[in-house]
Design brief:
Layout lengths: L1 H18 L2 E7 L6 H6 L1 H8 L2 E2 L3 E2 L6 H10 L3 H4 L5 E4 L4 E4 L15 H7 L4 E4 L15 E2 L8 H12 L9 E6 L1 H9 L4 H24 L4 E6 L5 E3 L4 E3 L10 E5 L3 E6 L5 H13 L6 E2 L2 H6 L11 E4 L5 E3 L9 E3 L12 E4 L12 E2 L3 H9 L27
Parallel strand pairs: 1-8, 1-9, 3-19, 6-7, 6-8, 11-16
Antiparallel strand pairs: 2-18, 4-5, 9-18, 10-17, 12-13, 13-15, 14-15
Helix pairs in contact: 3-9, 7-9, 8-9
Bound molecules: zinc ion (ZN).
GO molecular function: hydrolase activity
Keywords: Signal
InterPro entries: Alkaline_phosphatase_core_sf, Phosphodiest/P_Trfase
Length: about 400
């Protein structure tokens, strides 16, 4: 009897140990899918060789930082998680959203981020930055988080993440997120091929390498590292910029948001369909191949549906063009993202750890599928319908770690 109990207990304990996986999700903002080869990132390359690397991570439209970070942690298209661009207007609320406004008013977010899902099911979450992770969504924040108002040094983020993973079991988070912005910042200023981006890539690569090493040396729990980026980067040219002040827009009828790679025109309540149509044809007539007007069909393909945050008229363009309100002498060449999906807009996806198979590269996939993958690794049940599909990344999980029957 004792022997039976001992064996059973051992079996249960080892099963539990297997089930209790930890997930660390780190985003390197603006890290294009090919930067590992282009700029040299030996540490990230080594981690990829121990797990899985995707040929690219397809961003949601628009390929901007906030919509994509939220899609990664919610499994939803922007129209469904609420953060449809870095800056946008809501015709019902009659308010403008700008990056991070969810912290003051979390009703901007209309879904359940992975840290909410975890905390609701008794799994602690910790975020050393992730867009909107400080927001009290559905009445909860992660157990541990930091305000982005005074961004901390990158080394401090690594140290803190390691420290969280070494906490005693009752207070230790099993979901940890990290975020680095330097690669994106340099990409905007100097373009994706620049020496400055190379330097930033090498800086972050060193930090990630150190983090991975310390997980192996100092941390007892099984940690699965998921490295992602929100989007890629492409060159834009000062002489190809489109001056938005030349658009014949009546400000008493329309609210506008210049999102650099697209230009959004929202109709006011009193604005008639005829006035919208007139403006659309005027803008069409003066486009001259520099920009295009999104159609209902193109928007549907981009996952955009009608709603108070969807503009009545959306102008799009292609690199090296972009929309600007700057005077000619203030325009600079540089890098941008936010365009329709293309290889240049693809981000990074790498996963490695005890629950992840060692596998050759996998094909590119949309970032909305990462949420159900993380939920499965953590043993969390989805609580709301999502746009992502758990089947896409399910083959990456070693069979003994799946929670499905
Ligand atoms: Zn950016």
């Amino acid at each position: 009897m004792m022997r039976f109990l001992a064996v059973t207990t051992f079996f249960l304990l080892s099963f539990q140990a297997q089930a209790e996986q930890t997930v660390v999700l780190i985003s390197i903002d603006g890290f294009r899918h090919d930067y590992i080869e282009l700029h040299g990132a030996p540490n990230i390359e080594r981690i990829a060789s121990q797990g899985v690397r995707s040929e690219g991570l397809i961003p949601v439209y628009p390929s901007k930082t906030f919509p994509n970070h939220l899609s990664i942690v919610t499994g939803q298209y922007p129209v469904n998680h609420g953060i449809v661009d870095n800056n946008f207007y809501d015709t019902e609320r009659k308010q403008r959203y700008k990056m991070g406004d969810g912290v003051k008013d979390s009703t901007w977010l209309t879904t359940l981020p992975i840290w909410n899902l975890a905390e609701f099911q008794g799994v602690k979450a910790a975020t050393f930055f992730w867009p909107e992770s400080e927001a009290r969504i559905n009445g909860r924040t992660p157990s541990y988080y930091f305000n982005y108002s005074t961004p901390a040094p990158n080394q401090q983020r690594i140290d803190q993440m390691v420290q969280w993973l070494k906490l005693p079991e009752p207070v230790r988070p099993r979901l940890v997120t990290g975020y680095f912005s330097i690669v994106d910042t340099m990409g905007h200023r100097f373009g994706p091929d620049s020496h400055q981006v190379e330097k930033a890539v090498k800086h972050v690569d060193k930090l990630i390498g150190e983090f991975w090493q310390r997980i192996q040396n100092e941390v007892d729990v099984p940690v699965n590292l998921i490295l992602v980026s929100d989007h890629g980067m492409v060159d834009i040219k000062a002489d190809a910029m489109i001056d938005v002040s030349t658009f014949p827009i009546d400000e008493s009828l329309f609210e506008t948001v210049n999102a650099q790679t697209r230009f959004m025109i929202y109709a006011n309540e009193e604005t008639t369909q005829q006035q919208i149509d007139d403006l659309r044809s005027q803008l069409g007539a003066m486009a001259d191949g520099r920009y295009f007007i999104e159609t209902e069909t193109s928007l549907t393909q981009l996952g955009v549906t009608d709603g108070p945050r969807t503009a009545a008229i959306i102008l799009g363009t292609q690199a090296p063009a972009s929309f600007t309100s700057r005077a000619v002498e203030q325009r600079r060449d540089g890098g941008a993202h936010g365009f329709h999906s293309s290889r240049d807009m693809d981000g990074l996806f790498i996963a490695a750890g005890p629950a992840i198979k060692h596998q050759a590269n996998i094909s590119r996939f949309s970032n909305i599928h990462i949420y159900p993958f993380m939920a499965e690794l953590l043993g969390l049940k989805l609580m709301t319908p999502i746009d992502g599909d758990g089947e896409v990344l399910a083959p990456l999980i070693s069979s003994q770690f799946t929670h499905k029957n």
